[in-house]
UniProtKB/TrEMBL annotation:
Location of this chain's protein in the cell: Cell membrane
GO molecular function: transmembrane transporter activity
Membrane spanning residue stretches: 33-51, 58-78, 84-103
SUPFAM superfamilies hit by this protein: Multidrug resistance efflux transporter EmrE
Topological type in the membrane: Multi-pass membrane protein
Predominant place of localization: membrane
Keyword Coiled coil belongs to the record: no
Protein name: Small multidrug resistance protein
Keyword set, alphabetical order: Cell membrane, Membrane, Transmembrane, Transmembrane helix, Transport
One Pfam family this sequence matches: Multi_Drug_Res
A cellular component term, taken from the record's GO annotations: plasma membrane
Length: 107
């Protein structure tokens, strides 16, 4: 269950990171509120996950999910460049996330 909680925490990390762009430097109230709520949920879920998972593993996976999701949505939503190198390095992060899951007894 803790891996599922960690995954959901990572999804909320993506939400608050993308929310930063939409909040326009916290000048837009509604996107700012959504960003703050997503951040709080992400942190609460991460805190819950680390009660059963090692902090180093959980934090690395959480940030990895956030990095991959945010970079991917940056390409899709904000016309950030999608180069072969960028996709390759995002893929390396995914491999790291899966590897940490496998060696941490999470399967």
């Amino acid at each position: 269950m803790s891996w599922y909680i960690l995954f959901v925490a990572g999804i909320f990390e993506i939400a608050w990171a993308i929310g930063l762009q939409y909040s326009d430097g916290f000048l837009k109230p509604l996107p700012t509120a959504g960003t703050v709520v997503a951040l709080a949920i992400s942190m609460i879920l991460l805190a819950r996950a680390v009660t059963e998972l090692p902090i180093g593993t959980a934090y690395a996976v959480w940030t990895g999910i956030g990095a991959v999701g945010t970079a991917t949505l940056g390409i899709v939503l904000f016309d950030e460049p999608m180069t072969l190198a960028r996709v390759g390095f995002i893929s390396v992060i995914v491999v790291g996330i899966v590897g940490l899951h496998l060696v941490s007894g999470g399967h």
